[in-house]
Amino acid sequence: MSECCSVQDQVLILGCSGGSNVGQIANQAGIELERGGLGRMKCAVGVAAGIDGLVAGASKASHLIAIDGCAVGCVKAGLAAQAGREPDTYIVVTELGVAKNRDFDLKAEEVALTVTATRRAMGLAE
To answer: Is residue 6 in some structural domain?
Structure first.
C-alpha cells in the first residue's frame, strides 16, 4: 500500500473540493487542520471512488473528520457508500453562514471560520 493510502494516521480529515467557493473552503480548511497537527488529510474523492487503501483508511480511522461545502454532502455520502460509516466530526460550510458561489478568491476569514467550527465540534479550544 502506498504512503498516501496508509492507515497509520488515526485522525483522518476528508474535505470537499467541489466546484464552488465552499468546496474549496472545505478543502483549504482541511489543509489548515493538518498543518495545525490535528490529523492527516486524505483524498475524499478516492474514498468515494472506492480506492481500496483510502477506503480501508477511512474505515479504520479512530476519528474521521468530514468537511462538506454544501448540503449536497458528497463527502458524507461517499463515506457511507464506500466505508460504511458516518464521520465522527461533520461540518458543512454553508451551515456556517457562508453563501455558495463561484468566487474562487477564498476569504481567509471563511477558511478560519471553518477551521474553528471543526475544532469546536471536536471539543478543542482555540
So the answer is: no
Q: What is the DSSP string of 52-102?
A: HHHHHHHHH-SEEEEEESSTT-HHHHHIIIII----SEEEEGGGGTPPP-S
What does DSSP assign to residue 37? T
pLDDT-derived band at 4, boundaries 50, 70, 90: low
Q: How far apart are CA 56 and CA 68, in angstroms?
A: 20
Phi-psi region of 73 (alpha: psi -120 to 50; beta: other; left: phi over 0): left
Q: CA–CA separation, 123 vs 69, rounded Å?
A: 21
pTM for this structure?
0.92
* The C-alpha cell that represents 13 in the structure block: 480529515
Considering the domain boundaries, does residue 66 fall inside one?
yes
Number of domains in the chain: 1
> Does 7 map to a domain?
no
pLDDT band for position 71 (cuts 50, 70, 90): very high
Domain hosting 95: range is 13-112
